[in-house]
Amino acid sequence: xxxxxxxxxxxxxxxxxxxxxxxxxxxxxxxxxxxxxxxxxxxxxxxxxxxxxxxxxxxxxxxxxxxxxxxxxxxxxxxxxxxxxxxxxxxxxxxxxxxxxxxxxxxxxxxxxxxxxxxxxxxxxxxxxxxxxxxxxxxxxxxxxxxxxxxxxxxxxxxxxxxxxxxxxxxxxxxxxxxxxxxxxxxxxxxxxxxxxxxxxxxxxxxxxxxxxxxxxxxxxxxxxxxxxxxxxxxxxxxxxxxxxxxxxxxxxxxxxxxxxxxxxxxxxxxxxxxxxxxxxxxxxxxxxxxxxxxxxxxxxxxxxxxxxxxxxxxxxxxxxxxx
Length: 324
Prior knowledge:
The protein is an alpha+beta fold. The protein has helices at 15-19, 25-29, 42-54, 66-78, 98-103, 110-120, 155-165, 175-190, 254-262, and strands at residues 6-10, 35-38, 59-64, 87-92, 127-138, 146-148, 150-154, 200-206, 212-222, 242-248, 276-281, 283-288, 292-294, 297-299, 308-321.
């Protein structure tokens, strides 16, 4: 890996940056050649990336949360401000930091950014690259596609809304807060409660298979290798870039299969007839009348009678620090 020309997108309104607004100020003062752009909206990010492209930046550090990273990926793929795709380095500056938990450069500390900027200027940097596919959501209406790395519907949508409502309490705990919300979700299932867990009707077209209409408690599609708290509830064996898992109602044997499934391993009882499905796909079409989540941000489709199309438009490379 050769020397890199680095630009930084800094979102001062992201969770951790809001609480520690001057955390990286002293480190950045040591690297005046590094362009740092303050961003908040997608328009800000697009403007900054165009300036970075003119300056021949080939690695962008995103100092923001999952929403900032998602917006950056969308602009890179949809607007294509660079002649060739650059590399990203992600700091966990948000609340949940789902993406940074999988492909982040390191911890949210000044010395991490300092070490990264130092290594980026070295002719033999102690950095490594991990590549991930990117998830694209195409809408039936005239609307820009969304780009990200984690899609969720059903209970995930309702759980995210709960997290947003408690952002000053449970939500501030990051992935531990997400773990507490998951625990509440599992306890509700164990006690037979349906509060906030009502199944949604979804028509699912997985790859070349015919559409299947059913009631689902949750659906998720990701290109990440790790979710919060190290969970990996995907056990499909095919080679598609989109990792898809769903839980249909009625389901059976949840408590017997759950520990195994959360580790990404198949279980003999986790089969379609019992409500479980996990596949690796190139494309999936979903038709449902409910909201959904992409990288922690909540969305809806204005034409629920038409399917959302989830596919993979390409890959991104993420630069990370070697850790002892």
